[in-house]
Design a protein that fits this description.
By secondary structure, this protein is of the alpha+beta class. It has 16 helices and 26 strands. The strands form 4 sheets. Strands 1, 2, 8, 9, 10, 11, 17 and 18 form an 8-stranded mixed β-sheet that branches. An 8-stranded mixed β-sheet has the order 6-5-13-14-15-12-16-19, sandwiched between helices. A 7-stranded mixed β-sheet has the order 21-20-24-23-22-25-26.
């Protein structure tokens, strides 16, 4: 097969504790150096928490694997210093087209509104993504990457976890105050604890073929139901960097996975899609089964599960890595505060509350997509085909077409960390919602709101409409906010103004997008969490209400 990427080999270096035969207790050990584990490690390091990362392999993931990364995951990586590199290498896209047979049913735009720093989606092979994350992790003195280090047992004690780690130099013990298991769908840690997945394995199989070719397809997501080149099944096409294209073909449950991966079976399918005269080379081939399953709980004492070790979904909708990265994003700030004595242990239970709810939402959407793409009865297929026919002419039917609802971030509607609204606001920025971006001027430079939401608690205060030239911050408000910013919790506040006023830390909303998207009126206040989700909002500043909301947001 053709290769467009040279896999790095990371060397094994015995740790000091293995060389000396001592056992050292580490604050955090992350198991698995995939996208979720590396994201967690970078986030811990950013918060001043030393972290050891154990990985059983000595390279990045083999094969493109996950290729679609959504805006929210990219915003997390951007905060951690590596997002722009991914965007620069990736294929940026936001348009999807759905076909029935050889007719286009409709198209959709995943980010129709302007003025966002981060695109709706990029396509990027997982090996590049991990390569960039490893390179970023190597810049941090607080991250200890240990390759060829396979965890073979995990034993939880009252105040720590004991891991037995197998390496080329033998087996040794590693102790951790906290463990984050990011060791994938076949998680060995999950099995060691005797934990079972709940959910469903769907009786269908899909073939992934990454092919290298020069083609004039646009940078869009194309999905076919019953295409002329693959009758009564479905197919998908995505562009990746390096002239690599991701092709998916529905195979049916009776297909033999090993037979279907053979070139003599794959090549005719690709030729039928692209045309017999289109030159291409195979780069990577895999067969997968739809699965929508999760652990009942993601926290088990001092061990947390994140990413595929905690939940699995079918790949249509790009909900795998794009739901795993927010797991890491949700956990890191909470665990850092607890470890520093700034929040009670009960804050960590909210990781379960919020990310289990997100997993349920993802599984529900993924299951609905799977049921539509792979009808399980003649009646279901008849309904599906009727919807596709209607959707060509009837807009109402397009909302029923489900070729994989693309990943969107979860709003933690029922989170115990939210302070419910007492004032009326318009728009989507309810407590629990992920913050949305807007262009702002900051320190005399044009920038973005998401850059100001930098991993600390952030208070936004709307400093007035400037109608009378008075857009200052009242002295008592500034004093109260300064007091919070000097407190032990990591917190910063910004005044939102309509034009430059010279207020320290102001965000100048010259385009009006911030006011529009957050429904800001003079005196409005927002409290935003370190993971960029809304914690509370009010129409008027109230120091006691803000302090209470901050306590609630850290589980007090």
């Amino acid at each position: 097969m053709h290769a467009t990427y040279s896999y790095p080999k990371y060397s094994f270096t015995p740790s000091e504790e293995q060389r000396t035969g001592t056992v050292k207790r580490h604050p955090v050990v992350v198991i698995g150096a995939g996208p979720v584990g590396l994201t967690a490690a970078l986030d811990f390091a950013r918060r001043g928490v030393p972290v050891v990362v154990l990985d059983a392999e000595d390279t990045v993931s083999v094969g493109s694997r996950a290729v679609c990364y959504a805006k929210r995951a990219l915003e997390v990586w951007d905060r951690l210093g590596v997002g722009q590199r991914m965007i620069d290498k990736g294929v940026v896209w936001k348009i999807g087209k759905v076909f029935n047979g050889d007719r286009q049913v409709y198209q959709f735009d995943l980010l129709p509104e302007p003025d966002h720093k981060i695109p709706a989606f990029i396509n990027l092979q997982q090996y590049y993504l991990e390569d960039f994350l490893v390179a970023e992790a190597r810049k941090h003195d607080l991250i200890d990457l240990r390759w060829l280090s396979r965890v073979i047992s995990a034993r939880a004690e009252d105040d720590h976890v004991v891991l037995q780690v197998e390496t080329p130099d033998g087996v040794h013990a590693v102790e951790a105050e906290w463990v984050v298991a990011c060791d994938g769908a076949k998680s060995s840690v999950r099995k060691m604890l005797g934990l079972e997945f709940q959910g469903e394995v769907f009786k269908d199989r899909f073939l992934i073929a990454d092919v290298v070719m020069k083609a004039d397809f646009p940078a869009e997501r194309w999905f076919w139901f019953d295409p002329p080149f693959h009758r009564r099944q479905s197919a998908l096409l995505h562009m990746q960097p390096d002239n690599v294209w991701r092709l998916d073909f529905q195979l049916g449950w009776d297909a033999d996975p090993e037979e279907e991966k053979k070139p003599e079976r794959v090549i005719p399918r690709v030729q039928a899609m692209l045309g017999a005269d289109t030159p291409f080379e195979l780069e990577w081939v895999s067969v997968y089964t739809f699965q929508c399953r999760r652990l009942e709980r993601f926290r088990h004492g001092r061990i947390f599960f994140a990413g595929d070790s905690a939940h699995q979904v079918s790949p249509f909708g790009a909900r795998g890595a794009n739901s795993g990265v927010p797991d890491a994003d949700n956990l890191a700030w909470k665990l850092a505060l607890v470890m520093k004595g700034l929040a009670p242990d009960t804050l960590l239970d909210s990781y379960d509350d919020e990310r289990v709810a997100a997993a349920k939402e993802n599984i529900l959407n993924s299951t609905r997509s799977t049921d539509f793409i792979t009808p399980k009865s003649d009646m279901s297929r008849t309904f599906r085909d009727a919807v596709l026919e209607l959707a060509v002419e009837m807009p109402f039917a397009r909302s029923l077409v489900n070729s994989g609802r693309l990943s969107t971030p979860t709003t933690y509607t029922g989170s115990p960390l939210n302070t419910p609204d007492t004032d009326a606001f318009a728009g989507r920025m309810v407590p629990g919602a992920p913050a949305t971006d807007a262009p702002v001027e900051r320190d005399g430079q044009q920038g973005w709101l998401m850059d100001a939401l930098d991993g600390r608690f952030v208070v936004l205060y709307a400093a007035g409409d400037g109608a009378s030239g008075d857009a200052s911050v009242p002295a008592e408000v500034a004093a109260a906010l300064d007091g919070l910013a000097r407190g032990p919790l990591p917190l910063v506040w910004h005044a939102v103004t309509d034009r430059r006023r010279g207020i320290a830390g102001e965000l100048v909303d010259s385009a009006g997008r911030l006011r529009e998207r957050y429904d800001l009126t003079p005196g409005s206040v927002y409290l935003i969490r370190p993971d960029q989700h809304i914690a509370a909002r009010w129409r008027r500043f109230d120091a006691a209400a803000l302090a209470a909301a901050l306590d609630r947001a850290v589980g007090r």
